[in-house]
């Protein structure tokens, strides 16, 4: 009965997060559900507090990186990037697609997948309209690269941060092991998307592109570059990534406050506090589900050896679970199922499944849900599913093989 109640509460929380009736924030359902979990005894109060404490640094990083991305946008980084894309494409659809693919990958790696979906996608759509080019392939490049491009660094996706400590790897060690799987995934995504949208990306007639007089936002770009470098150096210095992201955000925030471009209220809103509360509350609800049987059942079916079949099995289970219950709760449950000291390769295989596995369904990733809201027209479910079926199984197999090969050599 406890398991059924916990699952029912999780289902309600996810349904509200997906549908957002009347535009209500996700926390509206998640916070009461977390309270009920404790009140009904599904999760003891000390365990709930421990869960919130464990998620605290991850959510703190999320708030800092969201603010950093929004301040960079206020500095004109994304507007400038859109102008550069338009100028370099010269009205040529295939060229613009390649540029958008690269830009979405870079933004995802540095500022996380949420920035790609919320901040870059509108700029890309405006650029395609400006050049009178089809928007579909470029919009799909944004959402697919938001998920698939987030494999490289621990800071590129919230799921990465949730399991980073459990992996036992350093920041650079994580990036080194994920580099080849990331490149393989990008190659699969580019090839499939380029082929699938070949009609939209056919030879186009170049159109005159007006010169853009906007100057490069050098200060913001330097801050972003230093923040990225700080992420790489932080692990060797024993500094958590949250402090590096916070430092970058503080620098841009002080500049914005001095120039009176934003107030303290705007800074608070830039951290998306209700969404951060949602993540904490969701963690409590998922902990109750995991405690009452799901984590134990998954522990019984998950492979425990870093062989290729073992890694592929973990990645496949993670992908399926992410597409059923969303990748964030799937990550929390799977980390619990892997135990207190999981093998690093198995943790990385888990991330393959929960990061780009959600490209198969709308509910698989919060980033995909945000992407749907950004688009002016609701995307075709048939098209989204078709592209997912062509990319996810191939990318999952190829990336897992790459991870197994890298681990066999250096693990």
Largest sheet: none
Per the principal axes of the C-alpha atoms, what is the gross shape?
globular
* End-to-end separation: 43 Å
Strand content: under 5%
Query: Count of DSSP E strands?
Result: 0
Please estimate the helix content.
Answer: over 70%
* Total helical elements: 18
Indicate the multimeric state.
single chain
Estimate the mean pLDDT confidence: 89
Written account of the structure:
- There is one protein chain.
- The chain has 411 residues and is an all-alpha fold.
- Helix content is 77%, strand content 0%.
- The chain has 18 helices and no strands.
- It has helices spanning 2-19, 27-39, 45-74, 77-89, 93-111, 113-130, 136-148, 158-167, 171-196, 218-237, 241-258, 264-270, 273-301, 308-325, 327-338, 344-356, 366-374, 381-410.
- α3 crosses α11 and α3 (45-74) packs across α12.
- The longest helix has 30 residues, at 45-74.
- The mean pLDDT is 89.
Features:
411 residues, mainly alpha, 18 helices
Brief characterization of the structure:
With 411 residues, the protein is mainly α. The protein has 18 helices and no strands. Helix content is 77%, strand content 0%.
């Amino acid at each position: 009965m406890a398991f059924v109640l916990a699952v029912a509460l999780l289902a309600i929380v996810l349904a509200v997060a997906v549908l957002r009736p009347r535009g209500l924030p996700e926390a509206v359902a998640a916070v009461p559900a977390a309270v009920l979990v404790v009140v009904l005894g599904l999760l003891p109060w000390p365990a709930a507090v421990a869960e919130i404490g464990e998620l605290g640094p991850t959510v703190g990083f999320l708030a800092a990186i969201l603010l950093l991305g929004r301040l960079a946008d206020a500095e004109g980084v994304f507007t400038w990037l859109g102008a550069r894309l338009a100028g370099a494409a010269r009205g040529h659809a295939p060229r613009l697609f390649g540029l958008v693919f690269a830009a979405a990958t870079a933004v995802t790696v540095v500022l996380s997948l949420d920035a790609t979906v919320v901040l870059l996608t509108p700029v890309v759509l405006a650029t395609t309209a400006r050049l009178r080019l089809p928007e579909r392939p470029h919009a799909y490049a944004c959402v697919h690269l938001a998920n698939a491009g987030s494999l490289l660094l621990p800071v590129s996706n919230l799921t990465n941060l949730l399991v980073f400590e459990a992996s036992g790897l350093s920041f650079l060690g994580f990036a080194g092991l994920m580099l080849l799987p990331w490149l393989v995934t990008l190659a699969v995504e580019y090839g499939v998307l380029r082929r699938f949208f070949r009609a939209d990306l056919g030879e186009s007639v170049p159109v005159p592109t007006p010169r853009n007089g906007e100057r490069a936002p050098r200060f913001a770009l330097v801050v972003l570059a230093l923040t990225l470098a700080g992420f790489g150096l932080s692990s060797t210095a024993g500094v958590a990534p949250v402090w590096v992201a916070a430092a970058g955000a503080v620098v841009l925030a002080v500049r914005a406050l001095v120039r009176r471009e934003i107030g303290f209220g705007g800074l608070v809103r830039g951290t998306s506090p209700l969404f951060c509360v949602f993540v904490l509350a969701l963690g409590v609800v998922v902990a109750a589900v995991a405690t009452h049987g799901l984590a134990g059942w998954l522990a019984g079916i998950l492979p425990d050896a870093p062989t290729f079949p073992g890694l592929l099995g973990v990645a496949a289970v993670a992908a399926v679970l992410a597409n059923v219950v969303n990748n964030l709760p799937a990550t929390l449950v799977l980390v619990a199922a892997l135990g207190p000291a999981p093998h690093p390769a198995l943790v990385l295989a888990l991330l393959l499944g929960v990061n780009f596995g959600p490209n198969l369904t709308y509910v698989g990733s919060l980033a995909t849900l945000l992407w749907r809201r950004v688009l002016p027209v609701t995307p075709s479910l048939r098209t989204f599913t078709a592209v997912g079926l062509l990319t996810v199984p191939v990318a999952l197999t190829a990336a897992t093989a790459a991870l197994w090969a890298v681990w066999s050599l250096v693990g």
